[in-house]
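Interim report, section 4.2 (structural modelling).
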Amino acid sequence: MFSNTLRATFIALTSLAIAVSASPSLSLKVSGVESVNNVENFKVKTTITNTGAETVKVLNDPRGALSKMPTDTFTITNTKGDKPSFSGIKVKYVPSTAAAAGSFTVLAPGQSVEVEHSLAEAYNFTAPGEGAYDITANNLFYVVDESSNIVPVYAQHDSNAHKAKLSGRLATPRPNSTLAKRASFVSCSSTRQTQLNTAASSAQSYAALALSYLNSHTSSTSRFTTWFGTYTSAHHDTVTSHFSNISGGSYSSFTYDCTCTDSGTYAYVYPGTYGTIYLCGAFWNAPNTGTDSKAGTLIHEASHFTRNGGTQDYVYGQSGDPAVHNVENFKVKTIITNTGNETLKVLNDPRGTLSNMPTNTFNITNEQGDQPSFRGIKIKYVPTNAAKSGGYTILAPGQSVEVEHTLSDAYDFATSGQGSYEIGVSNLFHIIDSFSKIVPMYAKLESQVHRAKLSGKLSVPRPTNRFARRTNFVGCSSARQTQISAAASAAQSYAASALTYLQSHTSTTKRFTTWFGAYTANHHEVVVSHFNLMNSGHYSSFTYDCTCTDSNLYAYVYADTYGTIYLCGSFWNAPNTGTNSKAGTLIHESSHFTENGGTEDFEYGLDNSMSLAISNSDQAILNADSHEYFAENNPALS
Ligand SMILES: *[C@@H]1O[C@H](CO)[C@@H](O)[C@H](O)[C@H]1NC(C)=O
Ligand SMILES: *[C@@H]1O[C@H](CO)[C@@H](O)[C@H](O)[C@H]1NC(C)=O
Ligand SMILES: *[C@@H]1O[C@H](CO)[C@@H](O)[C@H](O)[C@H]1NC(C)=O
Ligand SMILES: *[C@@H]1O[C@H](CO)[C@@H](O)[C@H](O)[C@H]1NC(C)=O
Ligand SMILES: CC(=O)N[C@H]1CO[C@H](CO)[C@@H](O)[C@@H]1O
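Predicted structure of the assembly:
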C-alpha cells in the first residue's frame, strides 16, 4: 500500500489541551507456561518495556501489570468467551500520593521490568472450567512527567494474548491470615490501633452525614452532581442505598489488618469478605479527616464490600482532569507532527483533525459510557479533487501543525451531562504520495485520550444565519440559483429512477453489488427505504445556502435540519449530472438527513466506495457516496 519512499515516515498526532513535550511509550507482554496443572501453579509474567527515547517513571498502580497485588489486572477468556470470576482485592490508591511517595518504576530507554502474577490469588476458574485460556493485561499505565503531572499512557501490546491450558484444581481458598480471625486488629501497633479507632469513629459520622444529606436532598445539588454526575432519581437511589448499607455497619466492629507495607497504597479489601480492611503505608500519612483522609479511606473501602453495593474503582483521585466551565469553552487542540524524514502532503479531510469543520471528528465518552449527541455537519468531499486543488497541508520533516476545535460546534452535552469526559480521535490520515496517489497513513498517537471535566452550560444554539429562514436561496447569485434549480430537478430524477430500478430488481445485479455489496433482501430493503424517502421529498422546495466558500468541499448539511443544504466551492465546478456532479451531490447530502435514513460518510470517492461494498456491505448501505454513485450510475451498470 505504501510506496517505498514513505515506508519509514509516519505522523505523530496529539490530542491535548496542554502540550506535553516528551512522548512516553511503553510496550507490554504477557508470557508464561502453556500448560498448567492446578490453578495455584497458574502464573504469568508481564514484561513492561520503555520503547520511548527518554527515561520514564511509571506508577506502580495496583490495578496494573507493574503491581503483583491480586487486583483485576487481566482479561482472561476461554474459547467459549467465558471468564473466571474475580476473587481478588479492590484497593484505595491516590496516584498523586503514590507519585510523591516515589512509588514508581524508573525505566531507561530500552529497559524492561518483569513482574510475576499468581492468577489463583485473583481469579476463580470453577465456572468456566478446565481448558485453554487467552490472557491479556490491562495496558493503561500512568507516567509521572517532568512537571510532576500524571499522564496516562497506553502500552502497545507486544504480542497476541498469552495462551495457556488449565487442568486440575480450578480455585484455591484465600490464604488464612496468620493471626486469629476474630481480632479487631491484625499486626497493628497500639499507636495505630488508636489512630484506627479515631478514623473508624469519623468514618461512621461521615457515613451518617452523607446518608442524611442524601435523604434530605432529592433533587440536583452541586455536591451530588460533582461526584456522581447528572442527578437522576435512579442514581440518587443507588448512592443512597450504598450509604445506607455503609452507615448500617459498625466500623468499630471491623477487622483492621496492618500487615500491608506498600507506601503508594492506602488500603484494600476483598469485596466478598465483609468487614476486613487491610491498611497500607499511605494510610498512616493521611490526615484523620478531609480529602483522601483515613476516615475517607474507610468509606471508600467499605463501599467496595459486596454487601454494601460493591463499587468499582473507575477513576482514582479527584484532581487531574482540567476543568472546563460552560461548553462553549470546551476546546481541544490537535497537533500533527511529521516525524519522518521526508516532506508530506496531508489531505485536509473535513472528517479529520486537520480540519476544524464541526464534523464528527472526536470520540467523546463520560465515565458512565455516555456520549454527547452529534449536532454538527456532514460533508460531500472528493479526496482526488481536493488533492488536485491544493486541499492539503505540507509538513516538512519535524514540522507540526496545530488545529483548535470547538467541541460545542459539533456536540451537544445536554443528555450526557456534566462530568469527566475522555476525548479520543481517529489516527487515520490520507497523504498524497510522489505518484500523486492518495494513500492512508495511520499516525502514532502520542496520547491516546485527553480528559477534561465539564460543568455549567452543556449546549449552545447552532449559529443561525443572518438571512431569512424561509427563502429557498441564501447568498446565491442569480446565476447560481439557475444552476441549483437545474441540479435539483436532475437530483429528483436520479432519486426517482434509482427507486424504480430498485423496486424492479429484487435479486442480485451488478449495479447493486458494485455499490452496496452482496445482495441480501435486508440490505435491498434498507436502500429502497432511503431512496423512497429521498424521492418523496422535493428538491425544488429545499433551502440552498451559498455562503460556504471552501474550494475543497462540495456541500454539507446538518443531518437534523431537513431540507437545508450548504453548497461550497467545489460544487460550482461540478457538472450538472454524472460522477461527483451537482445533482449527485444533492443525492449525497439529502441521504444524510435523519428523515431520509441518516447516512454516514464512511468512505469518500468512487474507488473507496467500491472497495467498501466488498469489505463492509453493512457500512456501504449506510454510506452517502455509495448512494450518490448508485444514483449517478456512471458508467451505466445494469
Ligand atoms: C469458586 O467459585 C465457585 C462457584 O463458581 C464457588 O462455589 C467456590 O466456593 C469458589 N471457590 C473459592 C475458593 O472461592
Ligand atoms: C485455614 O484455616 C482453616 C480453618 O480455620 C483450615 O482448615 C485450613 O487448613 C487453613 N488453611 C491454611 C492454608 O492454613
Ligand atoms: C529516510 O530514512 C530511511 C530509513 O530510516 C532511509 O533509508 C532514507 O534514506 C532516509 N531518506 C532521506 C531523504 O534521508
Ligand atoms: C470511543 O471511546 C471509548 C472509551 O474511551 C472506547 O471504548 C471506544 O472503543 C471508542 N470508539 C471508537 C470508535 O474509537
Ligand atoms: C448491595 C445492597 O444494596 N445490599 C443491601 C443494602 O441494604 C438493603 C437493606 O437495608 C438490602 O436490601 C440490600 O440487599
